[in-house]
Specification:
The protein has two domains: about 80 residues, Orthogonal Bundle (434 Repressor (Amino-terminal Domain)), CATH 1.10.260; about 50 residues. About 65% of the residues lie in helices and about 0% in strands. The N and C termini lie far apart (about 55 Å). The model has no long low-confidence stretch (mean pLDDT about 85).
Length: about 150
């Protein structure tokens, strides 16, 4: 799929809007964000200005406060067809039942089949789905172990 210059410009403007809205809603000023990112306010202003073609360097997302970085990463993932995996800790909220995990596994299997049908060449997306399924299996194992330990 080819994008026109106008589409690329619009996508960049949308991303800049999200970044500005996010840091403002988080209560940060450009100066504070610049301090967090170890740069100066002029760079922040230039990166988020609609009048320039300068874009936010991706590595700076790692330096941003979580309240800003998380929505930015979520936006980028959604607009690039990627899916973020939550951190799963097998020992969290174990109740000995695998009902929730089975439901999650069915949902993830359905998503994998859907990806195969609609995006047959999106191998990375399918690999990510499989990794998500492995995480659910690990949680299921922890549930079973928890149930056996408490019986």
């Amino acid at each position: 799929m080819q994008l026109t210059n106008q589409q690329v410009k619009r996508a960049a403007e949308d991303f800049k809007s999200l970044c500005v809205d996010t840091y403002q809603q988080s209560g940060f000023t450009q100066e504070q964000l610049a301090d967090e990112c170890h740069t100066n306010q002029a760079n922040i202003s230039r990166w988020f200005s609609y009048a320039t073609d300068t874009h936010l360097p991706a590595f700076l997302i790692l330096l941003m406060p979580q309240s800003i970085a998380q929505p930015v990463v979520r936006y980028l993932a959604e607009h690039t067809g990627m899916h973020l995996m939550p951190d799963l800790h097998p020992t969290d909220k174990l109740d000995g039942s695998i009902d929730d995990e089975m439901t999650a596994m069915i949902e993830k299997m359905g998503a994998l089949v859907d990806d195969y049908k609609h995006h047959p060449h999106a191998i990375n997306r399918m690999k990510k789905r499989i990794l998500e399924m492995l995480e659910v299996v690990e949680k299921m194992e922890a549930e079973v172990d928890h149930k056996w330990d408490h019986n």
